Amino acid sequence: MESSFISENYSVEKGNWQDEPVYFLRDHHSGAEAMIVPGIGANCVAWSVQHAEQKIEILETPPDPEALRTRRFKAGIPILWPFPGRVREARYTFEGREHHLPVTDKAGVHHIHGLVISAPWQVNLMSIDAGASLRLRISSDELSEAERAGYPFNFALFVTYTLIGNELLLDARVDNLSNEQNIPFSYGLHPYFRAPLQVSEAAPDRSACPVLIPAAALWPTQDGLPTGPAQPLAPELDFREWKPLSSQPFDHMYSQVSYADDWTTAAFRDPGLKLEVRVKADEQYHDWVMFTQPNRPSLCLEPYTAPPNVINFEQEGLPESGLTILKPGQSWNSQVIFEIAGF
Questions:
Q1: pTM of the predicted structure, to 2 decimals
Q2: Assigned domain for 1 exists
């Protein structure tokens, strides 16, 4: 496969980031650029747009590849599959069989954020026909022995990044490669946005950034795990209308989302730059997570197809809530669009 595709409008070029292979997607007319690291979770670690003759960085970028690989510095757009969020005690039962996932949370108790977040992916396709596009692939054969034991299903997962103007599209596809096994999963993205995008008098920190989350309920949680049905929102956590973020820490899981024209859209605004960062997710997505990193100027607006630990909801007596079960030979597709616009 060629390492570079270049046209008058777009380019996809292979490069390196501190000796780590990366791919740059560029829109030559808008000046937008994205950098993707196939070998560490297919993570888009940088995305910038041009605004008022300035280069505006949208994402927090890790200081080096090792920080990303070891998850010492979580940044960019981590891909969360097959289980975003935590799985209680790193175990689940599916179709009568118990499975044990690697324990990966800080407390040393639960599994968190799936099996592909820092795994090496393969470049599958590059294109400059309708935007600068890079398709990446990972399959069950590429998991470690421990991961394969905890998720013994034959799959292929594809993610395609496409840069067009001030939009970054992420298309996902899961193929069930088995002739006899169903595959259970949920899917999510964990973008680390700079908030504010640029420090200014109007936006000295993220608390000045108005936020919009189209959700009417919140999952009650303990240790990041839902403990009961989703509950109506307290006023201070209701962001269905634009409201400043406030300085309190957030790690909240929203449910009962609303859609407009088959999309659910969460967003925040930088009042200094007069720019709005939107995350649009298609009808496959039923939950949002809002998360802030302590002592870092970031804001995460995370679309999930289902809440954390959904694989255990039936066993724990919680209501069915969006676990995807893919039959042999079937495929599943979804799309999320990140968009920068003025307001």
A1: 0.97
A2: no
